[in-house]
Amino acid sequence: MSAITLKVNGRSHTVDVEPSTPLLYVLRNDLALRGPRFGCGLGQCGACAVIINGIAVRSCVTPCSSVRSEVTTLEGLAKDGVLTPVQRAWIDEQVPACGFCQNGQIMTATALLAKNPNPTDAQIREGMNATLCRCMTYYRVQAAIKRAAASLKGVA
Q: Model confidence over 98-125: pLDDT tens digits?
């Protein structure tokens, strides 16, 4: 066991865990953050996505000892109770069906729009293609991303 300090959603946390412990386990079990979800455990579905250095990262396959930058989880997106344009668009477009993948979808979309604030439909599909949804709400995800992009530009 090692004392590992992580900065998560603007706060520093020191946890005593094995260095190889997946970041997801630390976030959920030690920090009680429920946004990131355990889906496949192989980094393939995206349910566990968090943002590190502007990139959506699969926390289920990221050893906590390898994290050197701030981690943003779903809980860290809204500031003072004000939803981000992506979160607002998710509600407006009624994206969730079962809701299981929504953490990964929202975190990946947030990172996508931070990198490319005006993505084409093809860029949205490419940027989101590895974030899986069992309920097949992909068209609503795409519509929400387009709505959020318009909101970020001040059009919506």
A: 999 999 999 999 999 999 999 999 999 9
